[in-house]
Design brief:
The protein is α/β, with parallel strands linked by helices and 459 residues long. Helix content is 41%, strand content 12%. The chain has 13 helices and eleven strands. A seven-stranded mixed beta sheet has the order 1-7-6-5-4-2-3, sandwiched between helices. Strands 8-9-11-10 form a four-stranded antiparallel beta sheet. α1 runs parallel beside α3, α5 packs parallel to α11 and α11 packs across α13. The chain is globular, with a radius of gyration of 23 Å. The N and C termini lie far apart (53 Å). The chain binds pyridoxal-5'-phosphate. Pyridoxal-5'-phosphate binds next to α6.
Length: 459
């Protein structure tokens, strides 16, 4: 039976109400709202429940327990907020319920994926003819790019890793910067290359890999460079890394989960420019471009290497001459992420994407300026959208973060930067306004004052 129009209208009405209230509510949910989630912890019912009652429970109990990421004052991790076009497309896509595995399963999903991948490749300044894949996020995009690297390096050594695995394979070397993102190490672990077996390269005061500290490289080495340090936003020196690696026949993979998107901005694209020399790239559309969760992207210069890594065939899954989405990505049945990605990019255009990047960087600079003005210490060079802040001792800094999170005006996370506790502010949402920054600054300043008055006591 089709869902009734009433049910879908009710869902839309509830969603709109949620969004309309999001700006006025606490960013993190109230403790009482989190406690109320216990109402969801019930045994699975024996019989069916009316979908209207299911939706009512979800909204009544679930909505207050969410984090208001869509309302402009969420600065946690590197999370954007879904653009209106992305969100609306997701609603329509839910009605379509397409499996984006094969072209025959959804011509629309396949075409939108093709188009969106090509738009992103172009915007990021990556080489024409790259192989591309949509993944759940940058973790899987890193895994995808690194799997293609593993394939290509071992193929050159006469080894078929997809058929024979790593047992007895010629050893590969993996080089990472000391500030490598943990998810890239996880991807290496999943690929049998080892989280710990990497050679780590020293970094500078912003977390950039020091090219002068690179070890000797060879044709069985993959070097993992970073475009956008998750804390400081800094970029590895890609030109030197790529030149050194390619002279030695090594592969360069780029984790550009958010930083690569600076390529979309005339003001910031110099930061990402040299990364186009690499061999594979991972990024996220659910971070800075504000596509709804989840949406990662992997690109590989040698499309054949990517396809050879990911392709599979059987009598019922016969590849055609066209690009089949699942022949380039780890999964088979999959969400049609290209729909929202296409819609978000189509709604922004090049100018909108550039504006999103530049506006959020501008807000980060406003944060840094405002925090310095009240005596906080900004620990990083604020080159893009990331700001690291200390409020004195580590105890004080942690206490300020806790107070800010409890206050609810905005939400900022914590981290450690060069052995010091730091607040991490990431401005990644299209919805953030200068007024949001100023309201958040006032809340942070108040928390800082209270902490200094009470000698760092917890709220
Ligand atoms: C540099 C970097 N790489 C990888 C990731 C992992 O991304 P995802 O959570 O989409 O898998 C992140 C997430 O913040 C990141 O900042």
């Amino acid at each position: 039976m089709l869902p009734t129009a009433d049910l879908l209208h009710d869902a839309a009405r509830r969603a709109v109400t949620y969004l309309e209230r999001a700006r006025d509510r606490r960013v993190a949910p109230a403790t009482s709202a989190v406690e109320a989630l216990d109402a969801l912890s019930e045994p699975l019912t024996d019989g069916p429940v009316d979908p209207r009652d299911v939706l009512d429970l979800l909204d009544r109990v679930g909505s207050p327990g969410t984090v208001a990421t869509n309302a402009g004052r969420y600065f946690g991790f590197v999370n954007g907020g879904a653009l209106p076009a992305s969100m609306a497309a997701a609603w329509l896509a839910a009605a379509w319920d397409q499996n984006a595995s094969l072209r025959v399963m959804s011509p629309t999903a396949a075409v939108l994926e093709d188009v969106a991948l090509e738009w992103v490749r172009d915007v990021l300044g990556l080489p024409a003819g790259c192989g591309g894949a949509l993944t759940t996020g940058a973790t899987m995009a890193n895994l995808t790019g690194l799997a293609a690297a593993r394939h290509a390096l071992l193929e050159r050594a006469g080894w078929d890793v997809e058929s024979d695995g790593l047992f007895g394979a010629p050893p590969l070397t993996v080089v990472v910067g000391d500030e490598v993102h943990v998810s890239l190490l996880k991807a290496l672990g999943l690929l049998g290359l080892g989280r710990q077996r990497v050679q780590r390269v020293a970094v500078d005061d912003q977390g950039r890999m020091r090219a002068d500290c690179l070890p000797a490289l060879d044709a069985r080495t993959m070097v993992c460079a970073q475009a956008g340090n998750v804390n400081s936003g800094a970029f590895d020196p890609a030109a030197e890394i790529c030149a050194r690696a390619h002279d030695a026949g090594a592969w360069v993979h780029v984790d550009g989960a958010f930083g690569l998107w600076t390529a979309a901005s005339p003001r910031h694209r110099h930061l990402a420019a040299a990364f186009g020399e690499a061999d594979s790239w991972a990024t996220d559309a659910h971070k800075w471009p504000n596509v709804g969760y989840d949406c990662g992207l992997a690109f590989v210069r040698d499309a054949r290497a990517l396809r050879s890594t990911m392709a599979m065939s059987s009598a019922y899954f016969a590849p055609t001459g066209d690009r089949e989405p699942s022949q380039f990505t780890p999964e088979m049945s999959r969400r049609a992420r290209g729909i929202e990605l296409w819609a978000a990019l189509r709604s922004l255009g090049r100018a909108g994407l550039a504006d999103l990047i530049e506006r959020t960087c501008g807000h980060a600079a406003r944060f840094a300026e405002g925090l310095r003005a009240v005596g906080a210490e900004v620990l990083n060079e604020v080159a893009i959208n990331q700001v690291l802040v200390s409020f004195g001792s580590d105890t004080d800094t942690r206490a300020v973060i806790e107070r800010v999170q409890q206050d609810g005006t905005c939400w900022c996370g914590g981290t450690e930067w060069h052995g010091r506790a730091a607040m991490r502010i990431s401005v990644s949402s299209w919805a953030t306004t200068a007024e949001d920054v100023d309201r958040s600054l006032a809340a942070i300043e108040l928390a800082m004052t209270r902490v200094h008055e009470t000698g760092g006591a917890r709220p």
